[in-house]
Input
Amino acid sequence: MPCRNGAPSQLPDRTTKNAMNIELLKEKSAWLRRELFEMVVRTRKGHFPSSSSCAEIVVALYYGGYLRHDPKAPRAADRDRLFISKGQAGMVLYPILADLGYVAKEELLKFARADGVFRLYPDPSIPGIEAITGSLGHGIGIAAGHALSAKRDGKKFRNFVILSDGECYEGSVWETALFAAHHGLNNLIVVIDRNGCCILDHTEKCLRLDPLDEKWKAFGWRVRAVNGHSYAEVTSALDEAVSGSTEQPLAIISHSVKGKGVSFMEDQPGWHNRMPDDAQIARARKDLSTNCIVN
Amino acid sequence: MHTTTINPAPRLPRDVFLDEIFEAAQRNRDIYLLCADLGAKALDQFRGLLKNQFIHVGISEQNMMDLAAGLVQNGKIVYTYAMAPFVTMRCYEQIKVSLASMNLPTTIIGNGVGFSYDDSGPTHYATEDIACMRSLAGIEIVTPADTWSVFEIARLSHKKPALRYVRLDRAYLPDVYSDGDTRFLKDGIVEIEKGKDLCILACGCMLHSARKARANLKKLGHSIGVVDVFRLKPIDGEILRAVLAPYSKVVTLEEHFLSAGLGGAILEAMADAGIHKKVLRLGIQDHYYCENGGRAHIQRLAGIDLETITGKLRQFLAGRENRSDPGLRRS
Output
């Protein structure tokens, strides 16, 4: 069974956020990481480390009540949009889309297979996926197009983007950053998954990105920095994102760990798309049997 | 027949195009014009009167294409407008990924194809844009050769949006068609002048060079056909077969490099349709020209001025060695 760990069915209500809700989200984290890892092990394809580093953000969006969506109407005009601009982590959504009923759960077993719906990289033929991503620096611009459309049409939907920090090397990201600030796209929320790794090295050794927060601020964005693996912090930032309290687009710099939850993959750029051997699989499963998320 | 009357002669292609979409945008608030900082007389009324539908994206073609994708996904009819080299090659991957691979109908208006921006040099020349754009799956490419065809393609672009690259010359273009003649929309390839000895296939401004070369050769007793390749992609092989049927020799003429341009597209279409004829491709030599002195001068350096074209046609007619010249610039 794809969801053998049984995802909790009860969704926490954002308006009554409390310790219990955080517990539910944490359970989802543990479940999601196990699902992601097994998907990779089954097909020997996929990107667990990039997906794991942004797991809490997407869990909070879907199960924390932040994303207004309807699995029965994936293209409803007023839905909130989520763009996984860092397309290599598109798979992070698949267990969630299956759990919520966008796609049959059995499809997780066919991840990245010719007869499956869930492809290695996301594209809009998959219910719940907004845009094709995988080359970097596109999702944010497409999302800005949605945000602009909403503004011009007086619609209230929000547009969330998961951007990787390495993606910030792409000049097109900054073209969109300029544009979104100028046009006051406060319906655009970009989460920068600051795991500090690109494929070959750590970003700061490869080509320095810091001070990343100052860069986004200088482009006219409101910036929040959070521990990307703390639901207390992630939900606090998302509360601000949906509060409508600012005229600016919001950048949430989510400090995270690439490969979070699998000890030998954590913060190791070399594991970007490397496949574990049998011993490593056993070790990873043991790691993932306990929840790495504490609050 | 049209209800709108236009006076083609004194107006630039871009003004004719933008005027038509301005008219349409007044009636349809979902029409959006995205502009990467290129002006036009006709643009002023659009940006002045339809502020909500005009978006100056800055000199940011990549973002412009991604924004377009997002807007089209929300039901907008979107135009992206900039100089031809920038609106194609500067943002090529955005066109591929965000528009072509998601089948999002968007009109890409490239102003100033070929050597249109004559003294600006290779940065401003669009002499590889056909090659680049026609390798994208599912895109339509058109090069209007006169104001009537600019007007008609502008009308079609908002009535039936498609992912379409519209290649506009920067200069005034003399009439080829007349009001109500829309053969180019239907067939894509239209015989403009009949002949017997050979036919020249050309598009845009070079169609007019072809007509002039035809006139020159007529004085020498040659009968030359001239064909407008209005739509470069897709090309209908059966229409091409019918158009070429009377001729045993074919010449392609373009203000573009010979690599994968109009001539390449015609050769591919001929091969695919099993059309076997002698072909001479005329285009820009494989070299970047950092020269000044006007378009005619640059064309002369590149080997596509009227005199050079006429000379090569005469050789081809005489059956002398008729290799296309894809290669090295002769110093």
